[in-house]
Input
Amino acid sequence: MDAYWADAQAERAPDAPTCVSTFAGGGGSSTGYHMAGFREVKAVEWDDHAVDTLGLNYPHLDIYHGDIAAMSVDEVLSKAGLKKGELSLLDGSPPCQGFSLMGGRALDDPRNGLFREYVRLLDGLAPKTFVMENVKGMTLGKMKAVYHEAMTALRGAGPGYRTVSGILNSGYFGVPQLRERLIVIGVREDLGITPTLPAPEMCPPTVREALRGLDSGPTGFQIHANFLTAWGRTLPGRDFSDLHVKGHMFSHTKIHPDKASPTILKTVGVQRDGQANNGLYHWRYPRLLTIPELKRIGSFPDAYQFAESGDAVKDFSNAWARVGNSVPPLMTRAIARHIRATILDRA
Output
């Protein structure tokens, strides 16, 4: 990871491929693109902590902090010194939470404005390629209709795009975490290239391999006293769902050191007294994973910083959310390198 982080921090050549990251979060995707040698010309994010975190790690990055709907295409192009059609890649993970299958077009639902904003930028910027990430559930059951409608909108944006989509698991791209995401790659029609998805590169690394060399002692946010017995009775790799403590709703998993971690969720439960009631737990010590451990499992570099306020509980929860909300950097790196090799270097 140190070598990859050095790649991310390296100065870019003038002809390096360019990217814009929308819904950038705390920088998971941005870091992946930087690792792959892209020059990120703009990041768009509204969350205060995420923006502060991006700025800490990429102080020279042009960050639009606000509502994406208020950002014009002209602003993106002028600040990046690009013309329409010159941007190499537009990235984004627009949420699709307001779809309704009961009559009308789902994309016309006002709650789906963020997805429409992504399509607006795709239409106006006309980048050579785009990458859109979303939850895998978008392709399942009743959501299939939503998925097909979204794909139609993406293909019809700007000059038109050829697309490929599929479910990728981050574990097969060097991330010690089994995180599945819907990945859509689009290529502008005039380039005449049919996009493909990157092939798996390796077996998922284990948690033990990922944490090698890291000081992982007992110190940290300890599991709530009400759940200590359940933690002790649970085998590594299992959750506590069959050992429910009466009167409490929770999601606990004791990770297995010799397997990849389950998906890191964005929400962790830590009380003001320092006791934890929700999250991923160490297999040996009755505590939540620490942020250094979480960074390793999320494939963030050790040197990656998360903005702090001085409130230990708030800072821990915010850092956890940044990792849990991200597309893991090594997964994005693999996608970006694949796009460079199969599309941008040929265009």
Observations:
- The CA atoms of residues 72 and 224 lie 48 Å apart.
- The first strand starts at residue 18 and ends at 22.
- The domain at 2-203+327-344 is CATH 3.40.50.150 (Rossmann fold).
